[in-house]
């Protein structure tokens, strides 16, 4: 029993050790690139039960997950494909509706829209599944693709804070070791296209050039940097460059020292563009021969379409020097080729005069920032850089990205551990949730180990019982190699004191040959011997029923003085089995041993709570109540103006068509903007 208990303890400790080590996880990426303002590499997630596959972009500033709903398309396959797939919330058994709310992302950049919110399950694969996640279903073209938010700022619909996807993976599911991630946007123009890379709970060491410089997150937990300078170099400077402003090589496009454009820039992959001060945009315009389109609010090449081909041949490299604070000498330089900014607009981009069959329009991803709250470095920058964020240490780093055509398989994930003084809730090791295959493997291994130990235990116990069977009357123990008992040969007797048959294991039958005896003298006849001779049934001779004895010393024939025993059929009627020396029944058989089965039951992992406790990380909180959103932002953007009441929301001009009726909590209908792929 002691052995069994030890085995159970080993198995339980082994399973706990396996279940209790959260590790960095690489989020699956899609093979197709998406976007109507460029080619962007999305990640693939599964939403709902049963899971529905959708491809979404990564948002480094949003804390929610947004997916495109059926109202976001005109019913054509091409629309559904270009938007990364559609999520049918009415087909999910785990959807818990929360109502319609405004989409509170990048309001300072002028983006608007609303979504049908609910709670549902997000899965990355068969083993990683996170329930009760905030899902916003988009039924318009305000945002063309959905997002997987990496923020850690909790959201609430009533009075209960809902943990974000990243926080839930740490605090509720214990899947990753810390609140951290590493991300690069991928590059469509590199090699045979290089996909994005998103690692939660760590980073992929093969996707960047390391250094030891890190910056601090702002109070809203956003990665914010100071942009010290931007310059462009053409190698070599071509003669076709007719720009009068290209006086030096490299050419400065922005220098924050001694200018009024000093500020902090948020690295935000939710937007594709560089949101720079207007004076900086004008420097780009004059150096590259760009044209500002008021309708698109972006820079294109206008009527001079050949200028695009000229820039492609210039072999330009843009250098961004960023720092933690303006003027800091602790800087990081990120280089980007012109190909990173050589993007295209396609139908149905808002304001673009095109149809589904129109040729894409070349543009430069640069937008004019109205004020410091709009200073943003978007997704185009993250094509050539790798962003690593560690919320628990309140810092982040930006690295030069590395490209590998086999980037999907050539990965080297490294965990980001928790600091001892972290204010965030860590993984619950004792309640780790394992995937079904892992649990099955542990259970099978435990059962096999237990069965082996029990088999050995019963085998040893059975052997001991067999060795204890042969105990004799006198208390002597007969072992497997005990000496056999010899024959009992008695002198004359009577029917009252009967002469016994041989008591050894050998069975001696009548008649038998005479034993070989030693020489001896005549024996006096006793009283019983005299009576013996008076019996009417005499044996002809003693030699007639005594078996042969062993051949040994010199022998002689038994003299006639030896008296003979009576013989009657009754005396020989007993079968040899009745004279079993050990009294074990017929044939000396041993009774069978009854073996009972032993079963073991292992405790299943404790289910993770669906509702987090009241301990919330000391960070700002976005509240969604009564159709409003309040965000505690370092830029002071927290007025109810940006959290517009859905019931008073103006009809977005960019809604989809076919008179799609968008359901709201108050029953308000939205008339989508009309477009068609046919």
From TrEMBL:
Signal peptide per UniProt: 1-20
UniProt xrefs under Pfam families: Asp
Species per Swiss-Prot/TrEMBL record: Lasallia pustulata
GO cellular component: fungal-type vacuole
Protein name: Aspartic peptidase domain
Family the entry assigns: Belongs to the peptidase A1 family.
Region (Disordered): 599-618, 629-653
Matches recorded under CDD domains: pepsin_like (cd05471)
Keyword Membrane: yes
């Amino acid at each position: 029993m002691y052995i069994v208990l030890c085995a159970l303890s080993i198995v339980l400790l082994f399973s706990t050790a396996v279940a209790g080590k959260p590790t960095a996880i690489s989020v699956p990426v899609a093979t197709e690139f998406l976007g109507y303002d460029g080619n962007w590499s999305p990640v693939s997630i599964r939403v709902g039960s049963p899971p529905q596959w959708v491809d979404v972009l990564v948002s480094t500033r949003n804390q929610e997950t947004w997916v495109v709903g059926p109202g976001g398309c005109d019913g054509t396959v091409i629309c559904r494909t270009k938007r990364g797939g559609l999520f049918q919330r009415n087909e999910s058994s785990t959807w818990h509706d929360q109502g319609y709310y405004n989409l509170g992302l990048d309001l300072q950049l002028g983006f608007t829209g609303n979504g049908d919110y609910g709670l549902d399950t997000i899965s990355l694969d068969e083993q990683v599944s996170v329930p009760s996640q905030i899902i916003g279903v988009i039924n318009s073209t305000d945002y063309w693709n959905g997002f997987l938010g990496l923020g850690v700022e909790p959201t609430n619909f009533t009075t209960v804070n809902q943990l974000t996807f990243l926080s839930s993976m740490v605090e509720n599911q214990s899947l990753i070791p810390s609140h951290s991630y590493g991300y690069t946007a991928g590059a469509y123009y590199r090699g045979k296209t290089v996909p994005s890379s998103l690692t939660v709970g760590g980073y992929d060491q093969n996707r960047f050039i390391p250094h030891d410089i890190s910056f601090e997150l702002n109070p809203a937990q956003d990665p914010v940097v100071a942009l010290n300078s931007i310059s462009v170099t053409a190698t070599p400077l071509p003669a076709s460059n007719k720009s009068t402003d290209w006086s030096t090589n490299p050419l400065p496009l922005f220098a924050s020292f001694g200018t009024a454009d000093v500020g902090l820039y948020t690295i935000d992959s939710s937007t594709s563009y560089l949101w720079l001060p207007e004076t900086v945009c004008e420097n780009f315009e004059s150096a590259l021969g760009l044209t500002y389109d008021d309708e698109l609010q972006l820079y294109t090449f206008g009527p001079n379409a050949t200028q695009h081909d000229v820039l492609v041949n210039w072999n330009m490299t843009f250098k961004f020097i960023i720092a933690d604070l303006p003027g800091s000498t602790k800087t990081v330089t990120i280089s980007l080729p012109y190909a990173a900014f050589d993007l295209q607009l396609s139908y149905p981009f808002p304001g673009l005069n095109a149809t589904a069959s129109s040729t894409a329009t070349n543009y430069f991803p640069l937008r004019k920032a109205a004020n410091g709250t709009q200073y943003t470095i978007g997704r185009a920058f993250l094509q050539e850089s790798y962003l690593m964020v560690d919320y628990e240490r309140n810092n982040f780093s930006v690295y030069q990205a590395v490209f590998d055509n086999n980037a999907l398989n050539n990965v080297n994930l490294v965990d980001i551990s928790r600091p001892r003084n972290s204010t965030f809730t860590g993984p619950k090791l004792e309640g780790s949730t394992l995937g079904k295959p892992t649990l099955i493997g542990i259970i099978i291994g435990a059962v096999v180990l237990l069965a082996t130990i029990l088999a050995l235990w019963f085998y040893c116990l059975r052997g001991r019982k067999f060795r204890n069977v042969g105990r004799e009357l006198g208390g002597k123990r007969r072992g497997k190699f005990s000496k056999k008992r010899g024959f009992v040969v008695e002198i004359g007797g009577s029917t009252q004191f009967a002469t016994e048959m041989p008591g050894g294991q050998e069975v001696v039958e009548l008649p038998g040959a005479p034993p070989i005896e030693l020489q001896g003298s005549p024996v006096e006849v006793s009283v019983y011997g005299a009576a013996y001779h008076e019996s009417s049934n005499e044996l002809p001779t003693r030699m007639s029923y005594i078996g042969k004895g062993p051949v040994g010393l010199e022998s002689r024939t038994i003299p006639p003085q030896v008296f003979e025993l009576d013989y009657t059929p009754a005396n020989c009627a007993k079968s040899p089995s009745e004279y079993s020396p050990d009294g074990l029944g017929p044939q000396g058989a041993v009774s069978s041993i009854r073996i009972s089965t032993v079963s073991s039951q292992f405790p299943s992992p404790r289910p993770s709570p669906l509702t987090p406790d009241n301990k919330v990380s000391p960070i700002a909180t976005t509240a969604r109540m009564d159709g409003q959103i309040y965000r505690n932002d370092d830029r002071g953007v927290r007025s109810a103006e940006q959290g517009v009441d859905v019931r008073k929301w103006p009809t977005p001009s960019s809604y989809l068509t076919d008179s799609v009726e968008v359901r709201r909590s108050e029953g308000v209908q939205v008339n989508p903007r009309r477009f068609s792929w046919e």
